[in-house]
Design goal:
The protein has about 600 residues and is an alpha+beta fold. The protein folds into three domains: about 140 residues, Creatine Amidinohydrolase, Chain A, domain 1, CATH 3.40.350; about 140 residues, 3-Layer(aba) Sandwich (Creatine Amidinohydrolase, Chain A, domain 1), CATH 3.40.350.10; about 280 residues, Creatine Amidinohydrolase. It contains 19 helices and 28 strands. The strands form eight sheets. Strands 4-3-2-1-5-6 form a six-stranded mixed beta sheet. A six-stranded mixed beta sheet has the order 12-11-10-8-13-14, with helices on both faces. Strand 11, helix 10 and strand 12 form a beta-alpha-beta unit. Helix 4 packs parallel to helix 5 and helix 11 packs across helix 12. The chain is globular.
């Protein structure tokens, strides 16, 4: 009935089957006179989604999450993951060969120091670590009397005989009708930032920032329209973009050459060497620039200046064209979501649908819009205990039937040329328990606290994060992920630098788009998450002594009323939810058939 085009459900290779690869790596390390090696889940630009040719951590360990690190020593091997992936890693890696450790607290460096001996030589690929990460690793090694050694050529690549070729996705133009600003104007703003930094040039090591600056998009990685590339923007003169020319048509090359020189990726080393030989100060993004770039600039006599890439903040605050585009994308997405939610309510209680069926149905409804370019990440469709795995990815082996009494957590998003979406809904299949309704309502109240927040200019995500957790905390509960992340404009669904979390130190600015997604997860039982995307907008507050901001909900999808304990809501929360559901009904109803209209009327009825 339905099918998925942009997602697969194949089971990743299991940990036990990969033990031979670990042995082969140890042999290669011994040949290179290295005691051990550090394997990050990373490509040269620290992208969230990396091409298959850079999935070294998954190839070696079997762990397929988006964040992780492995350390391999002769007699010990550990994989480090954060709280989102603890359960997943435990299921994917061979527990006899690997131990699963925390990526955050304590940090991996402490494990390394404990396991090293004086004189050990630990290899690392300087193209896959930032300089800050390399410095932490070097300090941990030094503490044990060991040495961190940069390698020429990644040892995993020497044993990965069937490693895929690097991607050659075609580059497209993202014109001013979608971007809202021509390249010349963006470059003028970037040069103001270069002047402010007091440097001679800025290296754009984040492909998202290259794409934004030069108004291009690509298809080198899954689910993000990203053209893998670098750029160097000097204080004066034309910038250079470094990109494989095989990705460029005559039209896209002409577009780029209007504002930049176009060179092959391997020319980046020569360009930076030439700049550095004059003693130039060159700005590098501390979050994405490889340690290899720092070493190159220093070695040629230049001064690397590490800090936040100013383009990230420019990109995060959307202009009027991008904002209207994302509103349009969310209205389109809302129709697909309503059709999907109606379908689930009709079919799931019969007990025949599976998690994969839900993924395929939702993607199909989005494809019916005629505008879907891709999903913005693999859909998380977890029912019952699978819903408690925060970043669960259903496979044919793990696929679970959706049964009455279950909660179905579905977290999904779409890539449209005019905007990127991300939405999570938790759906009651049959009658929920009192515990489910209590937990859901606590999560909902946290979601509403963010949605209704009014805050002064300069407020950071860390200052708001507590609002989302307060009602869970009152019951001794919490969730082990951030409350919200930034979202791009037909770019990454997870965009920095702003976020709503304990670590969110970037002030929220008008035009930024962030997710609002508190949750609760009961291991081996159920998961709950409610997510809308929110636009930071100005708020008029009578008597305010400084500019005030708040949020506009971009996502338009019903929140399951059956899971709400209305007695737990305040009058203002209850009124906000009724008004939100009225907005959903007004935006979506006319585009639905009669059956789905009837469902929508019930799903959005006043509490």
């Amino acid at each position: 009935m339905f099918e998925a085009v942009f997602q697969t459900f194949e089971e990743p290779e299991t940990g036990v089957a990969l033990t031979a690869r670990l042995a082969a790596l140890r042999e290669e390390l011994a040949r290179r006179k290295l005691t051990g090696f550090i394997v990050p889940r990373a490509d040269q630009q620290q992208n969230e989604y990396v091409p298959p040719s850079d999935e070294r951590l998954a190839w070696l360990t079997g762990f397929t999450g988006s964040a992780g690190l492995a350390m391999v020593l002769p007699q010990a091997a550990a994989i480090f993951v954060d709280g989102r992936y603890t359960l997943q890693a435990g299921k994917q890696v061979d527990g006899k060969a690997w131990t699963v450790e925390s990526l955050i607290e304590p940090p991996p460096e402490s494990w390394l120091t404990r396991h090293l001996q004086s004189g050990d030589r630990i290899g690392f690929d300087p193209w896959l670590h930032t300089t800050a990460a390399a410095e932490r690793l070097a300090a941990a090694c030094a503490k044990a009397g060991a040495e961190l050694v940069p390698v020429e050529g990644n040892p995993i690549d020497s044993i990965w005989t069937e490693r895929p070729l690097p991607p050659l996705g075609a580059v497209s133009i993202h014109g001013a009708d979608l971007s809202g600003e021509i390249e010349a104007d963006k470059l003028a703003r970037i040069r103001q930032e270069i002047e402010r930094l007091g440097v001679e040039a800025l290296v754009l090591s984040d492909s998202h920032n290259v794409a934004w600056t030069f108004n291009i998009r690509g298809s080198d990685v899954s689910h993000t329209p990203l053209p893998l590339s670098y750029a160097v923007v000097p204080k004066t003169g034309r910038p250079t973009i470094f990109i494989d020319s095989r990705k460029l048509s005559n039209i896209t090359r002409d577009h780029l050459e209007q504002s930049a020189e176009v060179a092959e990726p391997d020319a980046l080393t020569l360009r930076l060497t030439q700049l550095a030989q004059s003693g130039a100060a060159i700005a590098l993004d501390s979050a994405t620039a490889a340690d290899a770039l720092t070493r190159l600039i220093q070695g040629a006599g230049g001064k690397p200046v590490r800090g936040a890439d100013p383009v990230s903040l420019l990109k995060a605050a959307k202009n009027a064209v991008e904002i209207e585009g994302t509103r349009r994308a969310h209205r389109r997405d809302a129709v697909a979501l309503a059709r999907f939610l109606a379908f689930i309510d009709r079919e799931a209680p019969k007990g025949a649908l599976t998690e994969i069926d839900a993924v395929e149905a939702l993607e199909s409804f989005r494809r019916d819009t005629g505008a879907l370019k891709d999903v913005s990440f693999p859909t998380i469709s977890g029912t019952g205990p699978n819903g408690a795995i925060v970043h669960y990815r259903v496979t044919r082996k793990s696929n679970r039937r959706i049964m009455p009494g279950d909660l179905l957590l579905i977290d999904s998003g779409a890539q449209y040329q005019d905007g990127t979406t991300d939405v999570t809904r938790t759906i009651a299949v049959g009658a929920p328990t009192d515990e489910m309704r209590d937990r859901f309502t606590r999560v909902l109240r946290g979601h509403l606290a963010i949605a209704r927040a009014i805050f002064p200019d300069g407020t950071t995500g860390a200052q708001l994060d507590t609002l989302a957790r307060q009602f869970l905390w009152q019951a001794g509960l919490d969730f082990e992920h951030g409350t919200g992340h930034g979202v791009g404009s037909y770019l990454s669904v997870h965009e920095g630098p702003a976020r709503i979390s304990k670590l969110g130190t970037t002030p929220l600015k008008r035009g930024m788009i962030l997710s609002n997604e508190p949750g609760y997860y009961k291991t081996d039982a159920f998961g709950i998450r409610i997510e809308n995307l929110e636009l930071v907008v100005a708020k008029d507050v009578a008597g305010a002594e400084k500019p005030m901001n708040g949020f506009e909900a971009l996502t338009l999808a019903p929140i399951d009323r059956r899971l709400i304990d209305v007695a737990m809501l305040s009058h203002d929360e209850w009124a906000w939810l009724d008004a939100y559901h009225a907005r959903v009904r007004e935006a979506v109803r006319a585009a639905l058939d009669e059956s789905d209209q009837h469902w929508l009327d019930q799903a959005t009825a006043p509490l």
